[in-house]
Amino acid sequence: MAESSTSIDDTSLARETNGRASPLPVVAEPAAVAILQDLADLPQVVASTRLLRLDSWEIGASVAALGLWLLLLAAGLSVAAQDYIDAIQHHNVSGVWAIVGSLFVISTCHTVTNTALMCCASAFLGALGFRVTGGKPEAVDGVADRRNAYVAAVTRGFFIFLIIQSGSIILSDQAFTNLTLEKYIRLVGLSSLLSFTVGYNPEVFRQLMDRVDKKFSDVPPNSGGT
Length: 226
What we know:
Layout: H1 10-15, H2 30-37, H3 56-78, H4 81-89, H5 96-109, H6 111-134, H7 142-171, H8 181-200, H9 202-217
Helix pairs in contact: 2-7, 2-9, 3-6, 4-5, 5-6, 6-7, 6-8, 7-8, 8-9
Transmembrane segments: 59-81, 96-128, 149-172, 184-201
Keywords: Membrane, Transmembrane, Transmembrane helix
């Protein structure tokens, strides 16, 4: 990466284009930025001295999730989803399967949906990592409980995506152009890192939710009335 800092210049994002990834500005709303930066101050998880052994389906799921993350990254870097969006909007796609194929490309390569999927995959990998290196043996009992824990981790990863997305939408009321490759890599890198963190350590998510709730609670009520 060209820069090691996670601070993001929202003005430059609104001006730069590359014709590849679909429109999405990076987090720029001050409250959202403060929430994400506060993650660095949250307590660290102490790894368990006993490593847990994954079941065969968990190993397969981890390989699949990692492969999915890499494929989504490659798709976001190389496929111009806007071309498929324009084709559908201008009615240049005929046939059910052609439309389905175009929608599949859009859902996996459009920056918004691409980032959402990568957040979910990263959180799932974080939950697997927690189970192997940081999880306590008594934390879950049985396959059903572990599956529920993984589903919860994916949900937490999607929440990180919503923070990033809502922070962008709240800031500006103008249409944003396509991101450069560098900005796209920084976006998915930051969002995946945060998603992996909340997947690995559920306590981070709980404290993050408390901080979000506190920031919304501090907003003064509308005194104008209806």
